């Protein structure tokens, strides 16, 4: 199909007979697409206009379709301009559209839509990683500042589920390009059995204003759905205005939360303890001691012998100066895991902090029986011996630490202090 552009009244006048022939042959034509109405309107409007005119190559010179358009200069909110394409009759005509002789629709419409400047690519085995990363990068450019640290977590989940769906033939993911620059991408899940496409995520270049890139890709996906016999294109949650431009119907979704009547039933389900301990340890590292203590306590209410919770709460109690509670928790840990190096080390340090040097020495000795190369245990035991006035034994400990770690500054300093 050959496409010509008519953009002056002289040429428009010359094709009147051809225009009238197509107008009379198109069963969907309306008065606002007639030559007589358009010629009057185009004379009046100040904007630039053009008519895409299609003909079949190597046949007679007559056109088989016309698509009247006009160019509008729009101003961005932050300043600057961009070009917007409208139907030529827009703003006064109740109906707009294009004229096509019956039988040429399948050739003409793709020809009008074709552009050497713009291209839509679709996901396949060779480009799946590339397509997914482009989509996520475009999405991130809009949401990184708002979602902060959650952005990486969301992207990781989305990346994994998109790969999973591609591997199971239930992903539709097109990317719209301008030259070699990606402008927009959308991902849809495909439910073959329910004949439904479900829109999941989109990302677009927010600096590109010339075309509604998101709408273009949604329209592309809807066309794919129709061609493949799908019954529903589901935009999922959200009432964004653009969704209604496709004739979307609202469906109310109820969000129900079941809670205990009292706060007494606060036991955690044992299956979520791995997530709970991970988050609690993170609170502890961030020095959010109140949240960490609550987390450790809830975990221990569900599983009283949870090793990581016993250790974490023991360390936290020592930080708060509650030495007896800390000692009890660490001893409970060692009942379960008697060879826990970190449990023994924390208990030894707890004794040492209370000047209970004999108990500290005994605990450090247990560590060294289990693991003879723990430099910190030699240093700490040397300090405890030094505090008891056992200098020779302390020197032996510091020297052993230096044998294991020749650049151990702590051992060197303590040796000099004797």
Automatic annotation (TrEMBL):
Record-level Gene Ontology MF annotations: protein O-acetylglucosaminyltransferase activity
Recorded hits in InterPro entries, A to Z, give: Acyl_CoA_acyltransferase, BioF2-like_GNAT_dom, TPR-like_helical_dom_sf, TPR_rpt, Ycf3/AcsC/BcsC/TPR_MFPF
- List residues traversing the bilayer: none
EC main group: transferase
Q: Name one Pfam family in it.
A: TPR_7
EC code(s) of this entry: 2.4.1.255
Which keywords annotate this record?
A: Glycosyltransferase, Repeat, TPR repeat, Transferase
The TPR repeats are at 307-340, 341-374, 375-408
Q: Where is the BioF2-like acetyltransferase domain?
A: 133-243
Q: What is this protein called?
A: UDP-N-acetylglucosamine--peptide N-acetylglucosaminyltransferase 110 kDa subunit
Give the source lineage, highest ranks first.
Bacteria, Bacillati, Cyanobacteriota, Cyanophyceae, Oscillatoriophycideae
């Amino acid at each position: 199909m050959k496409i010509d552009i008519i953009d002056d009244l002289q040429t428009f006048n010359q094709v009147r007979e051809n225009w009238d022939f197509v107008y009379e042959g198109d069963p969907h034509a309306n008065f606002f697409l007639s030559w007589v109405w358009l010629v009057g309107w185009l004379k009046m409007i100040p904007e630039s206009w053009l008519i895409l005119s299609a003909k079949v190559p190597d046949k007679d010179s007559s056109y088989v379709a016309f698509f009247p358009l006009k160019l509008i200069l729009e101003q961005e909110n932050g300043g600057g301009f961009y070009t917007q394409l409208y139907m030529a009759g827009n703003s006064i005509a109740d109906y707009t559209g294009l004229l096509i002789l019956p039988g040429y629709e399948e050739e003409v419409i793709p020809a009008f839509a074709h552009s050497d400047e713009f291209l839509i690519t679709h996901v396949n085995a060779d480009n799946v990683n590339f397509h997914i990363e482009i989509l996520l990068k475009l999405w991130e450019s809009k949401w990184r500042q708002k979602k902060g640290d959650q952005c990486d977590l969301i992207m990781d989940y989305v990346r994994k589920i998109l790969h999973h769906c591609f591997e199971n033939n239930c992903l539709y993911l097109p990317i719209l390009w301008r030259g070699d620059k990606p402008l927009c991408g959308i991902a849809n899940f495909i439910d073959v059995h329910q004949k439904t496409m479900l829109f999941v995520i989109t990302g677009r270049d927010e600096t590109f204003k010339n075309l509604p890139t998101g709408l273009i890709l949604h329209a592309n996906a809807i066309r794919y759905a129709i061609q493949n016999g799908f019954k529903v294109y589901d935009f999922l949650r959200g009432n964004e205005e653009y969704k209604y431009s496709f004739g979307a119907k609202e469906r109310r979704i109820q969000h129900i939360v079941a809670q205990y009547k009292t706060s007494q039933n606060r036991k955690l389900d044992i299956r979520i303890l791995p997530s709970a301990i991970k988050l609690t340890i993170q609170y502890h590292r961030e020095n959010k001691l109140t949240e960490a203590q609550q987390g450790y306590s809830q975990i221990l209410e569900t599983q009283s012998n949870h090793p990581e919770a016993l250790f974490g709460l023991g360390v936290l109690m020592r930080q708060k100066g509650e030495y007896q509670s800390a000692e009890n928790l660490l001893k409970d840990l060692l009942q379960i895991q008697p060879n826990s190096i970190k449990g023994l080390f924390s208990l030894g340090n707890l004794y040492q902090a209370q000047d209970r040097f004999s108990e500290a020495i005994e605990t450090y000795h247990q560590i060294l029986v289990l693991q003879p190369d723990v430099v910190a245990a030699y240093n700490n035991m040397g300090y405890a011996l030094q505090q008891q006035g056992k200098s020779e034994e302390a020197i032996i400990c510091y020297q052993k630490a230096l044998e294991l770690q020749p650049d151990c500054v702590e051992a060197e300093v303590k040796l000099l202090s004797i």
